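Model it.
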Amino acid sequence: MVNKRSKNEVKRYQILDAAVSLFTKQGYAGTSMDLIAKNADVSKQTVYTHFGSKDELFSASIEYKCESLQIVDLSLHDLSDPHTVLLTLAQSFTEFMTSKEVCAVHKICVFESTTYPQVSEIFYKAGPLRIINEVSLLMLKLHQQKILTIEHPRHAASQFLNMMKGELWMQIEFNIKERVSPEEVGAYLRNSVAFFIRGYAIK
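Modeled.
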């Protein structure tokens, strides 16, 4: 039984890897379950055994990408140094938002939102909404442990994530070729985290 489950997991990851690659390169409409099966080197039936529909696979592939980057580590018990915790979160979130796959899916959602309106909703629920929920839990922990005063964790989570996007995300969104340097991004994240902590410091 153990070996069989292990093989199933391997196939599942093969399918997810193929799906992420194809969705980001060819878009939602241009990617079929047949093509995913071919690129994953599995049968079409195997794809449907793991994922009942293309929508379900699209959602799972986004969740898979989020998990691979470990944007929020909710297993953290020691939050006594909020600057380190939040800076690590800011760096992970920036890496996620600027990754090739996420940028490609964002463009897909914008381009195909009229023909396939469910695509944007799937992306939002599997990616941004999930991250907001996880960061909200982190904000709640910081409040409960009396490290910061955060009476509205969800508001704070949205403020934090949107602040961290900064100029870099605007440049990516508008496809500007000349972009802020990694050094400038690092300085911006550090300053933004410090600003956020000052705003929610215990009085």
